[in-house]
Design brief:
It is built from 23 helices and 14 strands. By secondary structure, it is α/β, with parallel strands linked by helices. It is globular, with a radius of gyration of 30 Å. The two termini are about 35 Å apart. The chain binds one RNA strand through helix 2, helix 15, helix 16, helix 19 and helix 22.
Length: about 600
RNA sequence: GGCCCCGUAGCUCAGUGGAUAGAGCAACAGCCUUCUAAGCUGUGGGUCACACGUUCGAAUCGUGUCGGGGUCACCA
């Protein structure tokens, strides 16, 4: 039981005893005591003052006395200010929490719940490389999946690859027309970038043709429709749908290049998937359900044969489900895929990590599922996140202001190399160790930067800020971890009277008695313990809100508090042996929680940096 | 225009019913013969967009106004 829960329980009991009636934890609030006041937890009793018609001070005082009396091993004292009751936790309780958990790698995680949740994220198009927006999506999806696992759920990470459609044909046509048989191999380009360049080439060519036509007097609409390269592209899409061998071969070849490029990027940024869906395999799935909906009257057909749903009853518009020529649109395949997902995996919930510009689309999907009587309609959840903007405004591919994912990763790693070399603390590292360290720090900085903000909010990407390794950043937290490792090493070297290397991931400090005597805690020691105890709550809050920034804020605050403690009190040269052992435990526990929390964000920790 | 989201320090963000609204960056002033200074300590910086309301209590809830964004495709 967490301290907060235990306090709620104790308060209910004491109130019941004092007033002879039932109370629940909703009758009052328990929060951490603000630093400017004395105490660890505060019970806010204003609501009860009114209900019970008693004086605030008196209520707080009576309750405080009763709590101390009835919880001798837990609550050691109290003070009151109006209806605020500040409680102090006993050393005994804090220290037993510490000894029981200090090196538990599963700290804060919940037992298995048997809930099955799919998290669909990333979902790229195969006509261009990943950019900054995809990075937010990938980090967010991956982290949310891990956070849900930590909350005891079974999680399936999935991705739907948008590998077909007119936009894919555009890069194919451009390659056919302009590449002269060039390949990623022949040019040394990364596959996804190589294909992306032809997508850009298509648009340039298209624009040129349209302006030529309009200069000849064609209307803009006509020109856009009849530009020769567009005609060819549309023809190619038809050929693709018919399975024309030459087109299929080209399609397979070019997508193969892209997948090879994606694979490289995913590996670097740590994205992985348990299941990958391909639109080319799912785009026909929804058609049958549309027919079904037509039959039972959920949908209707217009004169041209197109099929629609009217959602004006729930505040949405009418929406096309199937084109007049019988081909499917985007949402058609979504209907098919969602059903397949729930049936194949027997899901309790399906979370879609998609940008907030698709809120409307996802609402429509849920409504369609409802209208079709699909039982899982309410288990679809759109985790929408805000767009990443630049300080100069939105990213626009046409204006070349898109921040490429691979470039950004390279830059972050180069920056971490630069900082590390300037500081010169790891000159004894091997080439391989250095490379790993740069990777850990660069990726840590980038992931932390993109995950520290509430996903629902739009965020501004500031290039200077993102490569900062000081303050509210990943490397700051990683640094705190490395410092703790250094403390452990120092203690061990002192004991042995020689330089010894601490085994990786080992927190053992044998040679000391492992038992902690009950002792007076200094304010910072106490503060750290109270804060560490909160970690379990933070994991469940992040899980409830599907919000990794909760973890990022917490772990930063923890590192910050530890660094203050570190500056104030020595571990290796503590006042006495008792203090030394206590602080070793606290240091190890801080490291354990930092490692666990950063892992939930997809960030690794270095032992030295 | 309809619907949805946002507005907190110079900048980027926490805080979603409780005490005198907090961090980081930027600025300024200090701290390394002692466990890593990628750190610590301090100073300055606020009409929580505005107005009214609900409440013992509002940055937080409600209504309205202003400002910014998204969306309402036989695109995906």
């Amino acid at each position: 039981m967490s301290f907060t829960t235990a306090i709620q329980y104790a308060v209910c009991n004491s109130l019941g005893g004092l007033f002879g009636q039932e109370f629940t934890e909703k009758d009052f609030q328990v929060s951490e005591t603000k630093p400017e006041f004395e105490g660890d937890y505060t019970v806010v009793l204003f609501a009860l003052v009114k209900k019970l018609k008693v004086a605030p001070e008196a209520l707080a005082k009576d309750l405080g006395e009763n709590l101390v009396k009835n919880n001798p091993g837990f609550i050691s004292g109290f003070n009151t200010i109006k209806a605020f009751l500040n409680l102090a936790i006993t050393e005994e309780a804090l220290l037993s929490f510490l000894t029981e958990n200090y090196k538990d790698v599963c700290i804060g995680k919940k037992p298995v719940s048997h809930k099955k949740i799919m998290v669909e994220y990333s979902s790229p198009n195969t006509n261009k490389p990943l950019h900054l927006g995809h990075l937010r999506n990938n980090f967010l999806g991956w982290s949310v999946a891990e956070i849900l696992k930590a909350n005891g759920h079974e999680v399936i990470k999935s991705s739907i690859v948008n590998d077909r459609g007119i936009h894919i044909c555009k890069s194919m046509i451009a390659w056919q027309e302009f590449a002269n048989g060039a390949t990623p191999q022949s040019t040394g380009a990364k596959g996804d970038h190589f294909v992306g360049d032809y997508y850009v080439k298509f648009n340039d060519e298209y624009k040129k043709e349209v302006s030529e036509l309009t200069e000849e007097g064609t209307s803009k609409d006509e020109a856009e429709k009849n530009a020769p390269i567009m005609k060819k592209t549309q023809q190619m899409l038809l050929d693709w749908e018919r399975g024309e061998p030459a087109v299929m071969e080209l399609w397979n070849k070019m997508n193969g290049w892209v997948y090879k490029g994606f694979e490289e990027t995913y590996k670097r940024i740590g994205s992985d998937f348990d299941q990958t869906f391909y639109e080319s395999q799912t785009y026909l799935l929804g058609k049958d359900f549309v027919q079904e909906g037509l039959k039972n009257g959920a949908f209707y057909k217009k004169e041209d044969g197109s099929v629609w749903i009217n959602l004006s009853g729930v505040g949405l518009d009418e929406k096309l489900l199937l084109r007049g020529d019988g081909t499917s649109v985007y949402i058609t395949q979504d209907i098919g895929l969602v059903k397949q997902k729930f049936e194949k995996y027997n899901l309790d919930k399906s979370i879609y990590v998609i940008g907030d510009e698709q809120i409307y689309h996802m609402k429509v999907l849920v409504e369609i599922c409802r209208k079709l009587g699909m039982p899982f309609a309410d288990q679809i959840l759109h985790l929408s996140y805000g767009m990443v903007e630049l300080t100069t405004g939105k990213m626009k591919s046409r204006e070349g202001t898109v921040v490429d994912a691979d470039d950004l990763v390279d830059e972050m790693i180069a920056t971490s190399k630069k900082h590390t070399e300037e500081l010169g603390k790891v000159k004894d590292f091997s080439e391989g160790d250095l490379k790993d360290l740069y990777e850990i720090l660069g990726m840590g900085a980038m992931k932390f930067y993109l995950l520290r903000v509430d996903p629902k909010k739009r965020m501004i990407f500031n290039p200077d800020e993102s490569i900062d390794f000081h303050g509210f950043t990943g490397p700051f937290v990683q640094y705190t971890y490395a410092r703790i490792h250094s403390i452990l090493k120092k203690v061990r070297d002192d004991e042995r009277g020689e330089e010894g290397s601490l085994a990786a991931g080992s927190w053992e400090f044998e040679g000391h008695k492992s038992q902690l005597d009950v002792q007076q805690l200094l304010p910072l020691e106490r503060q750290l313990l109270i804060f560490l105890e909160k970690y379990a709550h933070v994991i469940s809050q992040a899980g409830d809100e599907l919000n990794p920034s909760v973890i990022a804020n917490y772990v930063f605050h923890l590192a910050k508090t530890f660094n203050s403690f570190y500056a104030e009190h020595s571990v290796a040269n503590a006042e006495n042996e008792e203090k030394k052992i206590l602080r070793l435990h606290i240091a190890v526990m801080t490291a354990t929680v930092i490692k666990s929390a950063l892992q939930l964000l997809g960030i690794a920790v270095p032992e030295r940096m």
